[in-house]
Design goal:
The structure is a homodimer. Chain A has helices spanning 2-18, 22-31, 34-43, 46-55, 58-67, 70-79, 82-91, 94-102, 106-115, 118-127, 135-138, 152-161, 187-192, 199-202, 216-226, 245-263, 276-303, 305-310, 318-342, 347-380, 383-413, 422-444, 446-449; strands spanning 145-147, 171-175, 181-186, 210-211, 230-235, 238-244. Chain A is mainly alpha-helical. At the A-B interface, helix 12, helix 13, helix 15, helix 16 and helix 17 of A face helix 12, helix 13, helix 15, helix 16 and helix 17 of B.
Chain lengths: 450, 450
């Protein structure tokens, strides 16, 4: 049923746009969520897009803009005349405006800020002083705060006055005369309290807060750990803004994507809309790096050219050994990278983890080693070859697992994001390692292999 | 400063546990968040753990249990006598209880459900009838609903009566006489409305909802798209529960971890606490699969044994070509897998994406191909070898990119999770492909290569 209702409004909207029926379009727009309008907008042709933008009032347009992706957002903004752009930016969440302006040149930024209301522009300029991906950049100033000497009745009054501001947040924050955060009270408790009570008597004084320069990943963690719906941002003890849970959701998604991008070395922020040339240039650095590291593997093999030319069958097991070692490293890496996000790692935890992975490597190595030794013996009819391949695999799997564990831990200790280690570092390190071990052992047994 | 305060309470708590000072411990526990107690608990020795459990009252213990990881949670529960376990389970969120019980055998489940209050046990049993990872399993019944004929004043009365229930949720849901969801009102609007107004006159009638059988990933998407803090669950139109945003945060984290596990073939739910033997058995299936697929690569090489034995230098470039092709496939795969989460993909989008990746493959292939051709020529002094290696790389990179794009799209179409494709499927498919292309071209030029 939901599906049908959805198709119906969409059909009505498309029809209204095609026939330039402003009123019909606006009626539909009234009833639909900004996210859905944004989805439709992305599917429209140029003319219909222009018409849709024209039919949206400033407030609706601001909401829709917040739902569009980065590049689409800029494109829309550039289609508006300066005055309208200013009005719309005034109505958008300030953190979204800051994100948007950051992608523009200084001239365009100044022009757009100039078109905004002075107070809103000031707030955005202030947000832009915080580094990207910090708490300061996520915060909004659209929330309600009261002095600690307010009564509950006065608080309700202020809520009435700032009704638009309080739309999605369910707490009133309490500050003292120095603007320092001293407490919080939920709307629920405002409802349940008597109008004459002083807010400082009913508020909760223990408030989880973050400093403005806190990394956004840590911010999202706090939301998860303490099941928050909003989180005040402070400088010293002074309340400067508020982060809402929808931002935490976005951050979680963003950070997970970043981890996956790094683990798969797929390059920064490539989505379905990215142009081929840009996507290619973002991926190329990793690939060129891999190319050169692959050549290192090649030169190792060339060192063992004599061994290889005597027993060509050794080449048959090369991809398997290198692939297995690379993969076991990636497996460990993934566990460590995700684990580091959700918990603190001290020496004790690290040692335990390394020992665990050592055991895992040993178990996996012995099982796979025996398996491949038997297969190699049956396939090539040489017990010595089976022994060489099997023992190589045991050793490389143990080392591979350890490399995948220890390297990200070291990088984490050095304050380098361990996810970056993946694609190139671990996989190819393990590649090189596995070839050295394999051909090393094979060369030692060369007389018996022939 | 926060750091110091943290260390202080922790020190006080550890001290109290060591010296068996029940009151001091309880004073500290009062002041600290459940998450923090859970963190400390995990670090304690057996005796201190037992003492801490003893010092926690039922309610606190329920909160702490919700913050512990799966296996730890079970361990704690098994340490409690049946009666206390029942009390604690009564106080936990029902969806958490259901998750917990599911990991137990039917006998232990029945025993624990038997120790709970009849009404709470019934609700949990009901939750357990929904499949894991659906909306029905995430929902809570701890929220406030009123009939559509209630006045605002009566609503506030009900909120007062169910004060414990309404703790974290900021909306009152409105149902008609058939228990069908007909509206919602925020606490904010309750505050701003007059006590005599009828709730049906002030409520919002447009309520985003999900069916109980909806997949949890879709649930998290709705929270993200519409910036929700809670989401009602319905069967037909009947209101059966509510999902809160903290569950959506957990789902997002969980789903991201699952994607990473699958992309890195690292095996299901391995964290820092997993025992080596369990971690090894979870990873082994992938590795054994990879082993056999690696042998397929090996047997392809063995088909070209003659070519290889004539020009051993061909082996030097094998790891590079296979590695590059595998990696370019994983890059495309990661983009597709993450993209599929955040947007709908119809034929038009899929075609555009495939064309984009074709271009990317072409650009990357040509650049890397030329680079390696020059290097191979300089290193081995053979222009033909350069040509063979370079042209192989162009072809394999294009095919590798396309495979990494098309395969997950097909799997998605067949309702199979595309992330599963990665580790084994894409990487090794590309491995095999690259060897076939490389040795195929080399064999064609063999007379000129020698």
């Amino acid at each position: 049923m939901r599906q049908t209702a959805e198709q119906q409004w969409k059909w009505l909207l498309l029809d209204a746009l095609a026939k330039e029926k402003r009123e019909q379009a606006q009626q539909v727009i009234e009833e639909v969520y900004p996210y859905d309008i944004a989805q439709v907008y992305e599917e429209l042709g140029e003319d219909d897009q222009a018409r849709l933008l024209d039919y949206l009032d400033h407030e609706r347009l601001a909401d829709v803009l917040e739902e569009l992706e980065g590049e689409q957002r800029l494109a829309v903004l550039r289609r508006l005349d300066v005055e309208r752009a200013g009005h719309v930016l005034d109505l958008m969440e300030n953190d979204d405006v800051a994100d948007l302006l950051e992608e523009l040149g200084p001239e365009e930024t100044d022009r757009l800020l100039g078109s905004m209301r002075t107070d809103e522009a000031l707030i955005v300029r202030n947000l832009l002083t915080y580094p990207p991906e910090t708490a300061g950049r996520l915060m909004t100033n659209r929330f309600i705060w009261v002095g600690e000497d307010f009564t509950v009745g006065e608080t309700v009054e202020k809520m009435r006055d700032y009704i638009e501001y309080s739309e999605t947040i369910n707490y009133v924050y309490v500050v003292n005369q120095l603007s320092e955060l001293v407490g919080v009270i939920s709307y629920r408790d405002v409802i349940l309290a008597e109008n004459t009570e002083r807010i400082s008597d009913v508020m909760e004084t223990k408030v989880i807060r973050v400093a403005a320069e806190t990394d956004q990943e840590e911010v999202a963690q706090l939301f998860e750990r303490y099941d928050l719906v909003s989180l005040p941002v402070v400088e010293g003890d002074i309340l400067v803004g508020l982060i809402t849970v929808d931002d935490a959701l976005d951050v979680l998604r963003e950070e997970a994507n970043e981890d996956i991008e790094k683990l798969s070395a797929s390059g920064k922020s490539i989505d379905f809309e990215t142009k081929p040339w840009i996507a290619a240039t973002r991926r190329l650095p990793w690939l060129v790096l891999l190319l050169f590291i692959g050549l290192v593997s090649g030169s190792i093999i060339s060192q063992f050219e004599e061994t290889l030319s005597k027993v060509v069958a050794l080449a048959f097991f090369m991809p398997m050994i290198a692939g297995m070692t690379g993969n076991t490293g990636t497996q460990s890496l993934a566990v460590v990278v995700r684990g580091l996000i959700t918990r603190e790692v001290d020496k004790r935890v690290a040692t335990r983890l390394i020992l665990r992975e050592l055991w895992v490597g040993l178990i996996i190595g012995v099982i796979c080693g025996i398996l491949i030794a038997v297969i190699a013996y049956v396939w090539q009819g040489s017990a010595v070859l089976g022994l060489v391949v099997g023992s190589s695999l045991v050793i490389t799997l143990i080392f591979g697992t350890l490399a995948g564990t220890i390297i990200p831990l070291i990088l984490h200790r050095l304050k380098i994001d361990p996810a970056i280690a993946s694609g190139p570092l671990i996989t190819t390190l393990n590649d090189i390692l596995s070839l050295l071990v394999y051909f090393g052992i094979a060369t030692a047994f060369i007389s018996r292999l022939m």
